[in-house]
Specification:
By secondary structure, the chain is of the alpha/beta class. The protein has helices spanning about 5-15, 50-55, 70-75, 90-100, 135-145, 200-210; strands at about 20-25, 30-35, 60-65, 80-85, 105, 115-120, 145-155, 180-185, 190, 195-200, 215-220, 225-230. The chain is globular and about 45 Å long.
Length: about 230
């Protein structure tokens, strides 16, 4: 995100300069509001799948796409050692201001350390961007795992968004995998450079993991086609 509007919004909220929320949309969905206070939620305010992932987290932790640092802060209170990474400069600044001890401006593919738990939450598969890039990311994640390590990741099967009134599904077979979306973000009348974002159904994730030499276990399902999975060697 070249303008880092996401980071600017987080900094505004942290500094009490709140006048509006983030507006998001995709190439298949209309504009929607992302409330800034939701990004600063505590454990009790998190969805059940996130709570379950945090309960299972252990050892040295990598929090990928840490945002405002809510997951990292909770884990620090549990006395776990956490490294938080994000590609948003503003997000990392907010994390540090909120008390995240090890927050780094870093992309996942540039990470070199190894971990006992790697967290990719809030539709963690979005980080992979495209189905074509998925094998590269899975191989890299595999290289970051300590012995008996785990990757906890969530996503949603958005096939329902293509359902018509008769219960059938419409898809352009020439446009690629239905979970690959163009993601748009606006904040205070500024538009961010669009990015690719990947929603991944569990079956496709499991097949990709098998090809990468990873086990993929379905841990829990949410109320709206979303799920939490555990990947391990």
């Amino acid at each position: 995100m070249t303008k880092d509007l996401f980071g600017k919004a987080l900094l505004d909220f942290y500094n009490g300069n709140v006048s509006e929320d983030i507006i998001t949309s995709t190439n298949i969905s209309d504009e929607d509001v992302l409330p800034l206070d939701y990004l600063f939620r505590n454990y009790s305010e998190m969805p059940k799948l996130e709570q379950e992932a945090l309960k299972l987290t252990q050892g040295y932790v990598l929090d990928v796409g840490c945002g405002a640092g809510s997951h990292s802060l909770y884990l620090q209170k549990k006395e776990l050692e956490v490294k938080a990474i994000d590609i948003s400069k503003g997000a990392i600044e907010v994390c540090k201001k909120r008390g995240v001890l090890n927050a780094n401006l870093l992309s996942l593919l540039d990470e070199k350390e190894t971990f006992d738990t790697i967290l990719l939450l809030m539709n963690g598969t979005g980080v992979f961007q495209t189905l074509k890039a998925l094998p590269q990311y899975l191989e890299h994640l595999k290289s970051l795992l300590n012995k008996n390590g785990q990757i906890l990741i969530d996503s949603s099967d958005i096939k329902y968004m293509y359902e018509d009134e008769d219960g059938g599904f419409w898809q352009d077979l020439n446009s690629g995998y239905y979970g690959e979306l163009d993601y748009f973000l606006k904040y205070k009348d500024e538009e961010e450079t669009p990015i690719k974002w990947l929603y991944l159904d569990f079956s496709t994730l499991k097949m990709a993991c098998a090809s990468a030499g990873l086990q993929c276990e379905l841990l829990a399902e949410g109320d709206h086609f979303n799920y939490l999975a555990k990947l391990s060697i």
